[in-house]
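Preliminary data (for renewal application), adenosine-5'-diphosphate complex.
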Amino acid sequence: MGIVRLLDAQTIDKIAAGEVVERPSSVVKELLENSIDSGANVITVEIKNGGIDYIRVTDNGSGIDRSDVKTAFLRHATSKIKSAEDLVSVLSLGFRGEALSSISAVSKVELLTKTKTDVCGLRYVIEGSREMAFEDAGVPDGTTIIVKNLFFNVPVRRKFLKTAMTEGSYISEIMEHIMLSHPEISFKYIINGNVKLQTKGDGDVKAVIYELYGRDVMSLMIPVEYKDDNIHIHGYVGKPEMARSNHNYEIYFVNNRVIKSTLINRAIDEAYKAYLMLHKYPYAILYFDIPSDMIDVNVHPTKMEVRFLEADRFYNAIVECIKSALSHKELIWDVSNEKSIDKPIRTVSEDINPEPFEVKHLEDVKKEYEIKKAEPIIISNDHETSIPDILEFEETEIEESKFEQINFLSEEARKRHVLIGQLFDTYWLVEFDGNFYIIDQHAAHEKIRYERLVSKYRNDVNDSQMISPPIIITLSLQEENVLKSYTDEFKKAGFEIEHFGGNEYALYGVPSELYGLKEGDYFNELLDVLSTEKTHNDIDSILAHLASTSCKGAIKAGNKISLAEADALIDELLSLENPYNCPHGRPVIISLSKAELEKKFKRIL
Ligand code: ADP
Ligand code: MG
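Predicted structure:
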């Protein structure tokens, strides 16, 4: 007897389901996308036990017509593709007409639906592709789909699921992304009976960021905007002070779909290079609108990869738009709230069946969350009535005001700075407008020297300091080659060099920032570094090396300098485009609010 036989339909569905339904979060994603496609503007997602036991998605969309219900659960059933031509345009968005059939093949599904024109709704139950009920039901307009016992009939897959906690966190991530990409839809997200996230659906991305990450993060976000003939970029990026240690808070949408892209990550890194220390990454919520013929989408049901045609242009556009957003903003590190910024309250954790060691953490998160929501209590022992400014913001007040703090660096503000003095021979203390600023003199001076050097170089200001008598340096063949290939750059930077005979060269002049340092030594060092570097056309690397040399001449921590010197230093620092970070990315200025001090002294709580 032959052994080749056709698989039955249920087995085929189960196999196909493996591709679409990997875990509870894939079910949520598919159901959410269907709800959004149905034109809904209010959507509720409820999960229990990480979505393994129970997932409910309710929308107020079009509903499914009675005559379409059974078909919708067949494989390759879709109302979104009618012909082969549609396929091309629609495939890029991930519609394959497989979600409902796949989900119902591996779980117990209950559908409640009603279209606006129908008088009575419908209840349809299908378990492991088997129809269990099809009957009239009194339900509101729209659709509810309940998915119970995922993989009840595929034990192997069920065994491979992670803990409810982890599966729940994948769902939460999808919720966050969908909420961010559809601020015009009001979402409610319920975990084990508790409402965890809720958005208004008023179209305001800022309000969504506020809901997801809390007030502190929201108040440190800067809007970005860029537009050319093809690309439109908008969204928000975080001030450098709330940098994270991984890329997880860089979330971006291409044509409203969340994607992963190393190109975009690299562009964000590049834009932040001057502001962040190594291995630190910013918050960034970015939206890209790009014509579909400029991208190549590789769809897989569970991930989204995009390649960009004209990738260089796209990359530059991102870098430019973020840089310009950062360069016109006050970026002084406010150390008052450092704790809460380090751990923004992410209301995403599962709170049922936590493993014993996780209980405490969950409790903490809950407590923190409660505190955040609570009204500020003021215990004033001197009958002050004013509410300190960091507590002043009301939930509703997350509009532009957050971006309009008085600029510490403006000329007008500078006149009102009160220079209090020097601390530990290193830090300068300035009072201004209810805040207390601390400036690191070494970082400040280093930054000034660096900026001077770079700007002279970029603006072709020849500012060399003559050395007399000249310094004679002896070069190896390799060093000589480097010198020749960089002749123009060296000249531009302020070096005056002439051939002296044989393998000897005379150094007549150096950039004035570097005058007085051991010229011969660092020039040799510079050639050394350049000759071992692979990229031989990178002026940035010359500047970087010159900059690190210039640091050696900067005022050190521990040097006592006069008030007048400090005043001049601050003047110059504040005239720089980016005075906030030294060339190595460390902060130059930090601030502490009066309110924070008052909190520390328990004048207020
Ligand atoms: P696809 O979304 O790729 O078309 P699905 O299997 O996800 O395939 O859904 C099949 C069809 O069922 C959809 O094309 C749509 O017509 C209908 N449908 C599914 N969910 C909903 C919903 N929440 N509201 C209205 N119609 C829906
Ligand atoms: Mg679908």
